[in-house]
Amino acid sequence: MKKFIAIAAFATIGFSANAQNQSNQSSSASQTVQLTLSNAIEITFTGNSSATGADVTIPFSTVNDYANGVESDAQELKVRSNKNFSVAVKANNSEFSYTGNTTPAPEMPVEGVLAVKVTANGTGGDIAGSFSNYATLTSSNQNLITAADRGGNQTFSVKYKATPGFAYPAGTYAVDVVYTATQE
Q: What are phi and psi of 50, to 5 degrees?
């Protein structure tokens, strides 16, 4: 019986040592992943998520409208940029286009008639020049916001004010206003 116990104990020790030698093996592989980022910037109107905003209609119905001017509703724009940026604004023409019954077509200048102001600024940048109040638009780029922070949801809002006075006949006068976001 002593031999049987000694053989059983020796077999158990041998089995235990053999089990330790059967541990799991592993192997690994690796590779480098490189991201190639380009500078990217986009400006859109939040109302329709497009670079072309909805038409802004500013109706003139009373004598006081002509005398004091009429403001538009706020228009919100969003910039997405991976670098700090600035925003400029201009009218695409120095005069409004005219649709109406007067011949020859009246020539209404943009400068002195149409103004814009920044009413909200969530870009982290500074409102440039006098655009915290109404400043007249021209057909040349004017800084609107400078030193804005990069990010994916940098918004700002503007309002327009038109003050044509009494010198122009009834009709529809239109001009495109262009906002340009430029990385710094």
A: -130, 160
What gap in Å lies between CA 28 and CA 178, rounded to an integer?
A: 56
pLDDT digits (tens, 9 = 90+) for 127-153: 998 999 999 999 999 999 999 999 999
Residues 6+ apart with CB under 8 A from 171: 98, 99, 100, 101, 102, 106
Is 23 inside a domain boundary? no
Rounded to the nearest angstrom, the gap between the alpha carbon of residue 171 and the centroid of all alpha carbons in its chain is 33
Cβ neighbours of residue 125 under 8 Å, at least 6 residues apart? 84, 85, 86, 87, 145, 146, 147, 148, 149
Instruction: Quote the pTM value.
Output: 0.83
- 3-state SS assignment for residue 15: helix
CA 112 to chain CA mean position, Å? 28
CATH number of the domain that 72 lies in?
A: 2.60.120
83-118 pLDDT, tens digit per residue, is 999 999 999 999 999 999 999 999 999 999 999 999
pLDDT digits (tens, 9 = 90+) for 156-168: 999 999 999 999 9
What is the count of structural domains for the chain? 1
